[in-house]
Design goal:
This protein is mostly helical. It has one domain (2-65). The chain has helices at residues 2-20, 23-38, 56-65. Helix 1 (2-20) packs antiparallel against helix 2 (23-38). The longest helix is centred in the first third of the chain and has 19 residues, at 2-20. The chain is rod-shaped and about 65 Å long.
Amino acid sequence: MKLLLLISCAVVCVALSFAWREPWIGGVGLVIAFIAMFTDRDDVRIDDEKGGYETTKSVRNMRGRDR
């Protein structure tokens, strides 16, 4: 949700820079866009965090032994 809000704010700033002929507003919009890209988190849980007994590395080691 935060990413969508920051990107929409950046788009508005860049659009305003064309409408008002003020280039610094577009620069602010680009800074906001970079902040949005670099502060975005990936909240997808990996297999190790699910509380299982086996990690992905141990599963790979077990499968590799049978070859």
